[in-house]
Amino acid sequence: MSNRKAYMETLGVNEEMDYVDAKRIANRAIRNAHPDMGGKADDFIRLKEAWNNCNKEEFFGKKIPKIRHKNLFEIIIE
Q: How confident is the model over 31-55, as pLDDT tens digits?
């Protein structure tokens, strides 16, 4: 459990966030740390490892609503 909290701190996310927000913040941090974007390779690897170890929905507060399209005009949210 402490590893998970350390990974979340590394990414700048917390358990109260919903999965979508956490993913958005983590992806932004990873993208900015990418060597092709001017970041350091060590930071990029550390962030990718952190995300790979805590990118499960059950680690975050709210679940992702499942959205299906019934047809062109109707959306079903479960």
A: 999 999 999 999 999 999 988 888 7
Contact 69, 62 (CB under 8 A): no
Residue 14 in contact with residue 60, Cβ under 8 Å?
no
What sign for the dihedral angle of Cα 40, 42, 43, 49? positive
Cα diameter, the chain = 47
Question: Which residues make Cβ contacts (< 8 Å) with residue 42, sequence separation at least 6?
Answer: none
Q: CB–CB of 47/9 below 8 Å?
A: no
Alpha helix stretches (DSSP H) within 1-78: 2-11, 19-33, 41-54
**β-sheet bridge partners, residue 57:** none
